[in-house]
Design brief:
Blueprint: H1 2-13, H2 18-23, H3 30-42, H4 56-61, H5 65-75, E1 79-82, H6 89-97, E2 100-105, H7 108-120, E3 127-131, H8 137-142, E4 147-150, H9 170-177, E5 184-188, E6 201-208, E7 211-219, E8 227-232, E9 236-239, E10 256-260, H10 262-266, H11 270-276, E11 282-286, E12 291-295, E13 306-315, H12 318-327, E14 330-336, H13 341-352, E15 359-366, E16 369-375
Parallel strand pairs: 1-2, 1-4, 2-3, 4-5, 6-8, 14-15
Antiparallel strand pairs: 5-7, 6-7, 8-9, 10-12, 10-13, 11-12, 13-16, 15-16
The protein binds S-adenosylmethionine.
Residues 61-63, 84-90, 104-107, 110, 133-135, 151-153, 167-168 line the site of S-adenosylmethionine.
Length: 377
Amino acid sequence: MEEYIKLAVELIKKGWEERKIRVRLPKDNADEIIEIAKARIRAKDKFSKDNLWMDLEGLRYATHEIVAEYRAKRIKPKSIADVSCGVGIQLIFFAKYAREAYAVDIEEKKLFYAMKNAEVYGVKEKIKFILGDSLSKEVVDQIDADIIFSDPARPPEMPERNLEDLLPSPLAIYNAYKHKTDSFIFDLPPQIRRKKIPWRGEFEYIDLHGRLNRLTFYFEPLAKAERSAVLLPRGVRLESNPNLEDIVEWSEPKEYLYEIPQSIDYADLINELFHNVKGELFITLREKRRVLATSDEEVKSEYFKRRYVLVGTVPFHPLRINDFLRREGFRKATLRISIPDKEYWKFRHKVEANLKGERKAYVFQYKNKALIAEPLD
Ligand SMILES: C[S@@+](CC[C@H](N)C(=O)[O-])C[C@H]1O[C@@H](n2cnc3c(N)ncnc32)[C@H](O)[C@@H]1O
């Protein structure tokens, strides 16, 4: 089958129609081959291997390799069971550092792909693969691991996230395995409210390439702090410290602006960040997708997502912004504003109309004004 998947990848890349590709493939598995080929093409930035096995759903759920490696290195388990392993990416990285690992999935195809992928990464020998419901007694009885990990499937578009809605539910997994270990790790939807988690442990929010990617909950024996934020791929980490005095204050935008990573905001670590920075910082803007700090003097920190100097403040209207950018010699303007995706380009085209300069701006919305900023780094 591998040869046919490679052929399908090649033909899709050449722009062949699906119906013509299908003729060149074995009839019985043409659908599956084409889906794996599409997943491989889409996955190219997510994994270092180009011969992985996964369907499109498996790809959507699969842990990014950088995140999988980070978490595996953080816990370096002796033995671990991934009780909802999917196509196996996280499990494979755990296995890389473990003596033995267990892989469970309820879907036969997913478990088969996990096995193929474990072979690709060279860790298949260390893993015991179990097909079945990880909540069933037969499966529970087969597992003897120090740590139980689960990255459950999330039903799409659930506005209010609850543990009960995840598949398998972490509550049910805990009840099924608590007689075996007290070390659990759960992947949770990052939007879930921490109050809803009935255990003690650490909430670790991970940003990948500047965007919130994962929330991992580590039970107490594996926890290092109550809350933490990690910026990948750099591997920078910030932990909560309940003994710090609260120094977070608000201010109007000053000369310098700093974008704070979402993971630090979600983990409620802005106070910890301000303590860590040499210089006086204030919060100036807080929206769902971004937080801006500001200062009179330039400040450096490994925790900032981006640093800017404020070059202008104009009324928040595309023509006024465009006018300013044209006068000041800008060519491009990235909008860091909360508007629906569909409207983004319409607005941006207006803002960038007839710009001929060289400089690149970032535009934020502050009340009824546009803050026009230039990146420092
Ligand atoms: C989010 S995916 C896991 C992705 C994986 N961590 C990765 O890196 O590729 C969740 C998986 O849980 C499986 N699952 C759901 N309920 C289950 C159950 N009761 N027992 C075992 N697996 C289950 C689904 O089939 C799905 O493959």
